[in-house]
Amino acid sequence: MAWSTDLKWPADSDEGTMQQFPTRQRSQVPLIDRAFHWVSFLKRHRRLPDRSRKWVSDLIYDQMTSGRNLDPVVQLTSDKEHVKAHVDAVLGPGHTIPTHAILRTADEIDTYDFTSGTFVKPTHMSSKVAQGDSVDRSTLNKWLRRNFYYRKREHQYRYLTPKIIVEPLVFDGAPFREFKFYVLRGRSRLGFEVRRSPDGQHFLMFGRDLSVVPYDSRFPAPEHLDPPTCLEAMWDAAEKLGTPFHFVRVDMMTDGERYVINELTHSEGAGRYRYRSRRHPNLASEQEVSALLFGDAD
């Protein structure tokens, strides 16, 4: 199988599935990290990972152990500052949250005038955010000293430069909704809306035809999707942004008419998410979700 230096996945006409990734690229992931992911997968899913199985968790396992997350473009787009350059290049300006400041040192953090109406995040980590009017500077300094790779051995974070980004409230503080789209080989067939409430997060998963997927996480999800006006434009943007990658999740926010890209996620939950169904509260539910994600992909 010929291999070029561009970011395209081997043609669908080639035999095999995820195992088509070049051996020399897989070997770049240290054995200790591959063993870590293998054990973590076994403990979490209570089965062995299988690269040839078209299931979401196996796909993400392969993403982390094959070497794909070492791709420079994957690392670039894992950085919350630099991902905006990728979005601007693909979609044009105006599809990201503006940047107020990038803080690179403890001195810059200690002297910066944080204000209300802003959010503060580490560019080199995931799931960390603080409000500008209640920020703890000591926490931000701890973020600067942390290498997020060591949390779950996700290589896209290993070589990122620690920085703090300050952003304004999205849509000037107006209500917004959160949507996330899975993109596999440049095609997106599956997405979900995150609905937050005092009792937790509710996930509404849906297919490209807007049919609701019977999926549950920790909390029951609503049964009906009220699509925003710009949903089709969001699908299209997700596919354009995901084209350089084998698999990625594109996270967005929308006020119904406009949308912005929040981030790109290359190994969702480090492959530890469990997929449950109202109809089949077991591994069969992951088959349902995965069938929509893979579609007719080879």
Automatic annotation (TrEMBL):
<dbReference type="Pfam" id="PF14305">
    <property type="entry name" value="ATPgrasp_TupA"/>
</dbReference>
<protein>
    <recommendedName>
        <fullName>TupA-like ATPgrasp</fullName>
    </recommendedName>
</protein>
<dbReference type="InterPro" id="IPR029465">
    <property type="entry name" value="ATPgrasp_TupA"/>
</dbReference>
